[in-house]
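Entry:
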Amino acid sequence: SDPSGVASQSLKVTKPDGTQVSLSCGDTFSDTTTTGTYTVTYSATDSVGNSASTSVSFTVKRKPSAAAAAGVILPSKTHIWTLLTPGEVGIMKILDKDMGINEIRIEVKNRANNVRITVRKLSGKPAEVTKEIEGNVYSYFKIEHYNLEGNLKKGKIKFFVSKSWMKDNGVNKLDIVLERWDGDSWEELPTKLINEDEDYVYYEAEVSTFSVFAVAGIKKVVTTTSTIPTTTTTTSTTLPQSTTTTLVKVKKEVEWLPSIVVLLIIILIISFSLKFILKGK
């Protein structure tokens, strides 16, 4: 259109994660690596203060997965927090049983706007994961995040496993763990059993970042230690009867000795007294 009389104009692109990029008219925007809807908004103001704007949107989609190409629709859920502050717990409730997850909790280090979490259930191990898990895998899922990079203080995932699956695969409910793919290997996360009902066992696991996850049954190695019992031997010595008798006799003689000494002293005193009396006469 004719730009004559336009005092100011602006061009902005709003990306799927909510961030905005300002452009000059005539610039080319090519940062479309993130899937989702992009909105381009042009605004103009004329010399007398009249203003107007117009927008156009386009959507970037991924190439369909093998499951999607085969007509298999896998569930996914998205939750957006317009604002999260330190100390606040953001809670995402998931009511769809097909997801295998019933809750995600996050805490941020710093204030964050327009935080978005998307959970996608996967039909199997994705191509980006190059190693198998040593155990029985119950499910794979992927958690993607926007406006949260480097700002996740703590996360918690609550999930559940079918009891019938554990029975069919010979998996003990205490052997269920949540594994996270870190780009090179699987990392076993601290997993705790929190509840169970007739059909499912419920767990929770702590996470420090989001990526591809697997719920698996991995038998734990139990280490046992042997303790050698110690025996205490008590030896008692019994004195011969004759020795005991002799000791008793000696003791009795010693007990009588002071009495004999006293008696001798009394006799001596009486003797000296009689001697002096006789001399006096």
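Residues 241-254 have pLDDT under 50 and may be disordered.
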